[in-house]
Specification:
There is one protein chain. With about 120 residues, this protein is mostly helical. Helix 1 runs antiparallel to helix 2. The mean pLDDT is about 85.
Length: about 120
């Protein structure tokens, strides 16, 4: 289960989060030293805010880790995605005009999907 958190993407994220978490406390200390040297209310507020930012970032990161560990191992495998769109079925029984109209709509739909797929590339 924990092996999922050892992929290159996750290891990089671990390192970035750790560096940013430590950096927020150094920035808070720096603002505190400026505030104690007579920097004013803005420096005092930043001295309190930087550690809070680090804590919030760590909290969100831990939630991401928890969600990753709770995720089903095969959730990212092909074929498990939710289908949000289905191609329309063409009604060829009955009225020939209706069948021709449905074929026309299907052609328009295929063109629109082709443009959307081509536009994203």
């Amino acid at each position: 289960m924990w092996y999922r958190l050892l992929t290159p993407k996750w290891v990089l994220l671990h390192l970035v989060v750790a560096a940013l978490f430590v950096a927020t406390f150094f920035l808070g200390y720096w603002q505190l030293s400026k505030a104690e040297a007579g920097g004013g209310a803005v420096n005092w507020s930043y001295a309190l805010q930087w550690p809070l930012y680090g804590g919030m970032g760590l909290w969100f990161y831990l939630r991401m880790v928890r969600d990753e560990l709770r995720r089903a191992p095969d959730a990212d495998q092909p074929g498990n995605a939710v289908v949000l769109y289905q191609r329309p079925r063409i009604d060829t029984t009955g009225d020939p005009e209706l069948a021709a109209y449905n074929a026309y709509l299907a052609e328009l739909n295929e063109r629109a999907l082709g443009q959307r797929a081509g536009h994203g590339q």
